[in-house]
Structure formats: structure tokens, C-alpha cells
Amino acid sequence: MSIDIDMREFMNTVARFLATSKRDGLVVMREQARGVLREVIALTPPGRPGVSGNARSRGAAKVKADILKLVRGTNAEARVERLDIAQIHAANRRGGRVTSSITPRIRVPASALRAYIQRKQKRVGRLASGWNTAAARLGYRPPAWIWRNDGPGSIEIRVTDKDLVIRATNQVAYASEISMLNRRIQTALNIQRNKMERRLAYFMKQSAARSGFKSS
Q1: Beta carbons of 14 and 32 less than 8 angstroms apart
Q2: Which of 64, 68, 84, 151 could cross-link to 126 by cystine, CB 3.0-4.6 Å?
Q3: CB 167, CB 37: distance < 8 Å
Q4: Whole-model pTM?
Q5: CB-based contact 36:159 (threshold 8 Å)
């Protein structure tokens, strides 16, 4: 899955930011690339724009709820209908989520169901882990629950003192089906741009004060 993001406004802000910075342009550009990636990871499911709190806990709860739409545990061996919980789950997932329930739910061994839920909950963060390689290159380590996953993917990052190019590929099987993923990445870019704008506003206020002018 490749995503093309509109970076024109972001780069316009970067140009203004560089004009006021005394630091090396390459250092500034890498800092901004790292900031964008941090926001991308934060907004990749189970992270969501505008929602605070523990994304890992929300993701783990959704995993359990999805599985329990399909099966129910029983300790009575004679009532067990199927043993292949993983196959049942895989057959009913769309875009990484279970979108419809099975009625009545299929009875499976309770102990096997608990173990399966725990195993799948440990995989929360797999989609976001597709950014781990790029994060490492830019000096950012994502939260441990993301870092420990091994979602396939890569990012080509080309940074110069005048330009920033990020080409992302996420090869997690269901990445292309995630609703609004490209919009979330655009949101991450906008968040980082707004951070620069606030720093620019602060710089202008300080410059005005040093010059004896009052900023409005």
C-alpha cells in the first residue's frame, strides 16, 4: 500500500521555519520528519484522531469484542462445536475487524478461547509497527507495544537542507482496507505543521519584544 500525501502547506511552513532558525537546515528537516512520523504512529489504529487515552487498551478491548462476536467458551466438552478458533476468526475479518456477528455464536473450548484472545491481544500494534524501521532511522522509538511487533513495511526518507521526501509502504495484509488511513497520515502532517506554526509565532513575539515593539 502506497500513500501520497499533500505536503505543500507543510513545506511552505518548513521554509519559513528554516528562515528563522540558526540551526543547520538538515538537522531541522530531520527533526520535522521525526515529528511527523511520531504523529503518524500515534494516529495509526488503534490510535485515532482526537481521542486521548491508552490506545493499546482500546485495541485489546476491540480484539476481544471482535472474537466474542463469533464464538463463546464452554467447559463442557460435549457441547464443543469447533476447535479451529483462528480459522473462524480469520474467515470473518474484514479490514482487520469483525464486521458482523455469528448467531448463535459457535461453542469452543473456554481455555482455548482465553489463550487465543490473549495471543491476539499481544499483536495489538502490528499495523503501526510497519513504521518501526523508519522510526529507528530517525532516532525515535515507538511505545513498546508497537515496537515489539513485526508488521512488514518500509519508508524511504530523503532529507536535504531544502526538501523532505517521505515515501511510505505498509505491507500489513489489511492496511489498504483501513478506513481513512491516508487521511490520518495527512492529519499527522498537519499536527506537526501546527507545532511549527506555534514555534514561529513565539519566535516572532520574542523578536518583536527585543526590538521594542509590542505584538498583538
Answers
A1: yes
A2: 151
A3: no
A4: 0.77
A5: no
